[in-house]
Amino acid sequence: MIDAGERGEAIGEGVALGGLETTVGFLLRLAQVAVFKDLLAALKPFDLRVADLSVLLVIEATPGTQQSAIGEALRIQRPNLVTIIDQLQARNLVRRGPVPGDRRAYALSLTPEGEALLRKAKVAHARHGRKVLNALGDFETERMLAALRRIAAL
User: Fold this and answer.
1) d(CA 70, CA 51)
2) Is the pTM of this model over 0.70?
3) Apex CA 49: angle with CA 46 and CA 53, to 5°?
4) Which residue from 38, 24, 22 is spatially nearest to 132, judged by alpha carbons?
């Protein structure tokens, strides 16, 4: 069965969207809001935000990486990333270490506490991911992810 959103009808209580409901950007925004709302709820027990989880996952995958590389990979502006790292460090989840040959840069790694919290948060993140994929139904997941990657590269 096709719902109102798939037929291009108004999304919301009697509010016409003037064609927005047929635009990729608007629908991506609605989907992003829904996905983030669910992910925020999944991460709440761990007192993590989406950006926190993203940073922890990158540090886990590439221990010793520098803040600047994380910022570039996640498209987080330097001042915002410094705040995130400061907060994660204050919670004893990450540590900053020296970078050989560059006294201005820091190599980041997870603390044992960070590893333990991330293990638990990854379970919640995976549950959230399955929920999102289930919402796609029979849609080809890899095809959708490839399309989103192409859009993200614009």
Assistant:
1) 11
2) yes
3) 80
4) 38
